[in-house]
Design brief:
eight-stranded mixed β-sheet, ten-stranded mixed β-sheet, about 40% helix, about 20% strand, 24 helices, single chain, alpha/beta, 27 strands, about 800 residues
């Protein structure tokens, strides 16, 4: 690196330090010293530059001189291995993921309303981030905790950096909304302002207001006799400053917008026009405020919205876990305000009044130059305009089951098979349980329930089986965030049907996706198992990419039975025959495989690791991957969301590549593959599917399952088809950079565009009988991988 380049890096670092120190001062947060922060930033920027912009090889250069020039860069990477800065901050990495979601709102390959959907999802994600993650950091600051995160930042320092990044993200969301609004208007969907309405439209709107809105609104005057009311989480409210002309009396008042009202009111269509016109409900309320406050004149108004702490504190010694959660859910509705979003047009006097009443700090107030609650744009997405949405996709029903006349057990008896959702229907899982419920030879069913849908056919099948006299055990996880209420309801219903309901460990979430059916066949009992990477949720299974593995392998059946006994009886299982389970053996199994790949590399054999997961956070796993990279192991990761590993840094992670796929479907399946001395992809490779991400919470504080794939057909399907397609995708993929930021991947010069989601939608899966056409076979993908 030249002296000029080095000076430029330091200047970049100092600029970063100045910005963050300024933000810290504004928020009253103690920052790191300027020297330490500048040094931190310089090291990371230098590593990123070295990783992302390797110098072009000079064919005439002296190899020894070239290697000597690289040595300082490599040494810097090696030094980073022992610094907290080897990790990307978890929260900042998540914000980068949400930025990728937002960027899909600009993807020209998506229809207009689908782009609007991505904007809505990005806004909803940000709400949940504040409700849980930011709320937790605020709790730590209030408690005076200064313990740093694994990347070396204190809770207060993390809040400073989060605040800066969220401000940029929120501004970009609003800018994208303005652009999409123009495109919607060009395509016959118009968001109207009150001044645009004709007299006829205003007359209709007033009638609509009086008939459908006025009856459910409650104007609330704020004075000593009427205290400031409780504003619910994510509740939008309009604050008013009013004056009574006859005596000049000033009145402050609020109107909460009830959740029962649609956010956008559709105006009647004009004769001969096809444009759909909408107006925001808050504009309707302001327009007719005189109806709510007769005798007063409107002086000022502005909408605001609160986001509250919605995490739950778990009392490990709660005597009745169900009753504890019922009361905790009620407390959540009154959580501390973490974020106050205020329309930028609200007067400072009115804004100060609202902030003081909510007792919220200045740095938690966000002025919105645009539209509040962008998540509610999902209502516009739902209008009937199929020309502006993805073409409907009907998943295939697994060929193996269809060829067996719909008999799931007969299909499993032939051999193991794997169903790839959402490209293949989740109905296969539902049919597995319904067939078990109605089969007189089935004697027992055991099932985990982490998340499921309302009116769940899974729960209905279990209830039907229990009512038929079968032994049904349902392991219901009460600690599934934001689904606790539904899970309590299902637990009650199953108990009424006669099922045995178990709530698992207090201190561990049961996140494994397991279903086990015991069937009497002749003079013996046969165990059929379903092991999945995703939830037993028929609705999300239409958009989440997951794997469902069906088997009657006796060894796996015994392992699944042992895992159920572990959760229901609290006794650690005897050594599992095939599977691994967290928090006992899953992480050690993965670490052992990484060590074996290191040994292969040292011995000169092919050494490779492929990872597909939602989050890569655990420090032990990351450090093991760094060690493997330094020994030359080739590592490719497909990480949808959080990635705390810094890829591509010479001397630290030069052989590690990380990408993220964000597209029509939500990547959710977890696959872990190790070359086993033969490289990847290869029939001798070791391949697992799992319910577990590579996070400490999954590996150390949850019950998760890791399943080896040994059936040759399924092994080929998972490795040569699913993983290869994910790695080859260049249409909806992002390259994760050493800094934690990302950049979109596009086809290289001469490279054919490849969209993994479209590939799976249009090509048959090997969960059938291996009848994929030669053109779309895994071998064709392998040849393509070699060419690229």
């Amino acid at each position: 690196m030249s002296e000029a380049e080095s000076d430029a890096l330091v200047q970049d670092a100092e600029a970063m330090e100045t910005e963050e120190t300024s933000l810290a001062t504004e928020r009253g947060v103690r920052s790191e010293t300027a020297r330490a922060r500048t040094a931190r930033a310089a090291r990371i920027i230098a590593a990123e530059k070295a990783a992302e912009k390797p110098s072009e090889p000079d064919t005439g250069a002296d190899p020894a001189a070239t290697e000597a020039a690289r040595e300082p860069v490599i040494e810097a990477g090696r030094a980073l291995r022992h610094s907290p800065e080897r990790y990307v901050n978890r929260e900042l990495s998540w914000l980068q993921f949400n930025r990728r979601v937002l960027e899909e709102a600009s993807n020209p390959n998506h229809p207009l309303l689908e782009r609007l959907r991505f904007l809505s999802i990005s806004a909803n994600n940000l709400d949940e981030f504040f409700m849980v993650r930011v709320a937790g950091l605020h709790d730590q600051v209030r408690a005076g905790l200064t313990v740093p995160s694994q990347d070396g930042l204190s809770p207060a320092e993390q809040l400073v950096r989060i605040g800066a990044e969220v401000s940029r993200l929120a501004l970009d969301q609003q800018e994208r909304w303005r652009q999409l609004r123009e495109e919607l208007n060009d395509n016959g969907i118009h968001l109207a302002e009150p001044v645009e309405l004709s007299p006829e439209q205003l007359a209709w709107l007033e009638e609509y207001f009086l008939a459908h809105v006025f009856p459910v609104l409650t104007p609330l005057a704020i004075d000593p006799a009427h205290p400031f009311p409780f504003i619910p989480n994510l509740g939008s409210t309009i604050a008013f400053m009013l004056v009574r002309p006859r005596d000049g009396r000033t009145l402050r008042a609020l109107i909460r917008m009830p959740a029962v009202l649609d956010r956008f009111v559709r105006l009647p269509d004009r004769e001969g026009e096809t444009t759909a016109r909408f107006i925001a409900i808050e504009q309707v309320i302001v327009k007719f405020a005189a109806r709510l406050f007769p005798g007063y004149t409107l002086k000022a108004q502005g909408a605001f919205r609160v986001v509250r702490d919605s995490d739950l504190e778990i009392e490990e010694e709660a005597e009745d876990l169900v009753l504890h959660f019922e009361s905790a859910i009620k407390r959540r509705r009154r959580g501390v305000v973490i974020r106050l979003e205020v329309e930028a047009g609200m007067t400072e006097e009115l804004r100060t009044f609202v902030a003081d009443e909510l007792e919220i700090a200045h740095d938690a107030i966000f002025l919105v130059e645009g539209t509040l609650a962008l998540n509610e744009l999902s209502q516009i997405v739902g209008i009937d305009r199929p020309d502006l949405k993805f073409k409907p996709y009907n998943p295939r029903f697994p060929e193996r089951i269809r060829e067996s006349g719909g008999d799931v057990f007969a299909a499993i008896r032939q051999k193991d098979f794997c169903v790839h959702h959402p490209y293949e229907s989740f109905d296969s899982v539902v049919q597995f349980l319904y067939q078990a419920a109605r089969d007189p030879n089935v004697v027992a069913i055991k099932q985990t329930l982490y998340r499921t849908s309302s009116n769940s056919p899974i729960v209905a099948a279990l209830a039907e089986a229990a009512e038929a006299g079968k032994s049904v055990t349902a392991l219901v996880e009460l600690k599934a965030r934001f689904d606790e209420e539904a899970n309590i309801r299902w637990a009650r219903n199953l108990e009424k049907a006669g099922a045995q309901v178990v709530f698992g460990f207090v201190e561990l979430k049961t996140h494994a996706k397991l279903s086990m059916v015991v069937r009497r066949e002749g003079d013996r009992l046969v165990t059929y198992c379903h092991i999945g990477t995703g939830n037993y949720h028929p609705i999300t299974a239409r958009i989440y990419t997951d794997l469902s593995f069906f088997t009657a392998d006796p060894a796996i059946g015994r392992d699944v039975s042992r895992i159920f006994n572990y959760v229901t009886g609290y006794a650690e299982p005897a050594e599992l025959e095939r599977m691994a389970v967290s928090p006992l053996t899953l992480k050690p199994r993965l670490l052992q495989h990484i060590e074996e790949e290191i040994a292969h590399a040292r011995a000169g054999r092919p050494a490779a690791i492929w990872i597909k997961c939602n989050s890569l956070v655990d420090s032990q796993i990351i450090d093991a991957l760094y060690d493997a990279s330094q020994e030359g192991v080739q590592i490719d990761c497909v990480v949808r969301g959080i990635c705390c590993l810094r890829p591509g840094i010479p001397g630290l992670s030069e052989t590690i590549r990380v990408k993220s796929i964000v597209g029509r479907f939500l990547e959710h399946g977890r696959v872990y593959a190790f070359g086993n001395g033969a490289g990847l992809p290869h029939p001798k490779a070791t391949v697992y599917i799992s319910s577990a991400d590579l996070m400490s919470r999954n590996l150390d504080r949850r019950v998760e399952a890791l399943l080896p794939i040994t059936n040759p057909t399924v092994h080929q399907q998972v490795l040569d088809q699913i993983m290869l397609a994910n790695l080859l995708d260049n249409r909806q993929s992002w390259r994760v950079l050493a800094s934690g930021a990302c950049e979109r991947i596009g086809p290289a010069e001469g490279e054919e565009p490849f969209n993994a989601h479209k590939y799976f939608m249009t090509n048959p899966s090997l969960s059938g009988r291996g009848k994929s056409s030669k053109k779309s076979s895994p071998r064709a993908l392998s040849r393509r991988a070699q060419r690229s």
